[in-house]
Request: fold
Amino acid sequence: MSEETITSGPANAGYRPHRVVVLALDGLLPFELGIPHRIFGRPKDDRGRPLYEVLTCSVRPPGPVETDADFAIHVPHGPEVLATADTVIVPASYELGPVYEDGVLTDELAAALAHLRPGTRLASICTGVYVLAAAGLLDGRPATTHWAQAEHLQRLFPRVRVDPDVLFVDDGDVLTSAGVAAGIDLCLHMVRRDHGTAVANDVARRTVVPPHRAGGQAQYIARPVPDPQQASTTTARAWALGRLHEPIQLRDMAAQEAMSVRTFTRRFREETGVSPGQWLTQQRVERARHLLESTDRSVDQVAREAGFGTAQSMRQHLQAALGVTPSAYRRTFRAGAEHPESRLRT
Reply:
């Protein structure tokens, strides 16, 4: 779909979807290359028009790019298309050469990145962060990558504030993620930031993935798969989600599974990676975000319906989780695409 095509005709006068350009590098992982196309290729406006246009380019003229699998892909665009991008995403590659080994860009990669316009939103998936770091775009900024590469990334780029534990980091105009599934989380987060919860949830539903995992969630937990012979805490979680607006005691959740509080707490952490109290707070923050985005209820009403009780309590929890107040959050997402510079700390 060309820019000329989508802007032609009276029905589309003044209409242009947000252009996402994916930079395909030799040695790329096909799965991660496909994530932006899958996530950004789904959202549509209320007239059925795509909200995003996704293009793939390489650092060379159009042609084949090698993958880490037993096949190559044909990339239809050269690096000049980067100059037209609103967002550029760099997926992982296992053949970054001097970028990974010495922290410096190759000549062709440097020439390609020179096409970027000021203000372009940049994102990376997994080891794609090395490209942004080698270009000096992460100096003094927080970033993440796959946990297995985090120590190496920090040694190679000491000016980058590497967080090895989180799924992704949103630093406004530059976003970075851990590997594979975290790339899905990051792309859904960008859709959510651009167009709100309803649009992002619809994309997640169609993609059959969780609609939201907070960026600060741990990349992995010590025991992610519970013993199938042990009772699950699923019933308790479903019970709690149905009454977030009410006071919920740990003993009441444990009673749903006929467990002692001690056993329930241990099993809960094994299955979710967080304590019951942390999980409840996360769910209440999510409920508050949804209500702030999709309703005109007052902050006090939202606080009560989300289970925080008071506006002050909700303000403290949103500030801790997102770095913004409820009112600022509502303004950000009500503004939507008109204010793409909006920044949330995740």
User: Anything to note?
Assistant: Residues 276-294 form the longest helix (19 residues). The beta strands are 18-23, 52-57, 63-66, 72-75, 87-90, 121-125, 142-143, 161-162, 168-170, 174-177. The chain is about 40% helix and 10% strand. Residues 1-8, 220-226, 335-346 have pLDDT under 50 and may be disordered.
